[in-house]
Amino acid sequence: MCEICRRDFIGGAAALGAAGASGLFSSPLKAQAARDNAGSPGLPSRLPSRGEFTIANAYVMTMDGALGDIAGGTVHVRNGEIVAVGKDVIGGGEKIDGVGMIVMPGLVETHWHMWNTLFRSFAGDKPEEGYFPTVARFGQQMGPDDIFQSTRLAAAEAINSGMTFVHSWFHNARSTAHAEADIRALAEVGIRARHSCGWAQGLPDTQSADQAPIESLARNWKSWSNDGLITLGMGWRGQFRAGPIKPEVYQPEFDNARKLGLPITLHVASARKAVNQIGLLYKANLMGKDVQLIHALSANPAELDMIKETGSSVSVSPGSELRIGYGYPQISEMLAKGIPLGVSIDTSALTGSSNLFGVLKLARDSENARVESEFRMTARKALELGTIEGARSMGMDNQIGSLKPGKRADLIAISPDALNMAVVTDPAHLVLEATGPENVDTVVVDGRILKRGGKLAALDTSGIVAGARSALAGVRERTKWR
Ligand SMILES: [Zn+2]
Fold it and tell me: Is pTM, for the whole model, over 0.85?
């Protein structure tokens, strides 16, 4: 969430012990998995191996312009890569029956404060209990293990609900150990991610963010990248927070990200009333292909042109934007300009559950509501925003976002057998409008099967929930929260 509006509101390892429970992963493959991560001393090494398998006879929504949808289609995966997609593909490795399933790319999430999932549904109904004061107060009491527990809960929820890429927007970098804990949690769950390292909650707007955590990570990134699954970026405060931030405070942060060669992300023009912020960003030469803008709800037509001209991307999060009263995102306007656009969860402190299918549906519905039309935005376009377009907005579309030979194998299979999805009519509408986490049968990240038969194959969910509860109890105790 952007903090410009704050004044308006206040003035372990055991989790992966079951890897291989699906029976797919033999001992030699587990040994291979350990070797896969041998170059990452700070990270766990018990993820399931990347094997070879073929999902056959499924309805395949490739989200690729040329390949389109394939009824009775087959997807062949080997060593983390999509080898073949098509109707007459023979495939190899383990055969997985896809009859009745809808197979599509895993969802691509583009901005999520996973570290504050501990405060799920905690933003209350009074200004003093709103999102910003709540997160600032309790976030300052979190230690590295609290961050780990929170982000691990979010990452497990992501896999369970069909996300294979998340953007962990980490604006509680209280120390290098805090940032490392966020990355460790992402790695343990095995999700593909970007970690954007930011500042510490409670940092005065007159002070530059401590650059030690991001510099330490950048120096040793190879050992944190989980074999290339996680990339590093900077979560930047921008030029505004509770009020304007002085150039001598924000410029060194921005310059450091560029010096380190890292992508930059910031909240800007979040609410309708936060006007002219993008114009100021443009004037100060703080936009570009490496800069992602979060929300940008108040962008005027000239500012939309600036976004297009500079190549910046945008992430909108209608689940939180509608909940907090920012207003409607300008999805159609941005698409019409050709601005790279993704959709995001933002924070479960506001959204409760973090089902990106539901947020994509809200994106489509908010577009239709604005113009009072049933037909403003198609279901297919909403699904594109959650897959290939989201990947493009994160600079990842050469690797993920569609099912195409040569891309990394990040995919999901949806089973429409449950009561909430039964009877398949139009697949794109059905997937957008009805998919819940319980319908996501299979989730594959980089060729590793992390969910199968509706169960998280490599995670101890009750341990994850217990860990998060215990961390929350500690924060509660330290903050004397009754
Ligand atoms: Zn945010």
Answer: yes
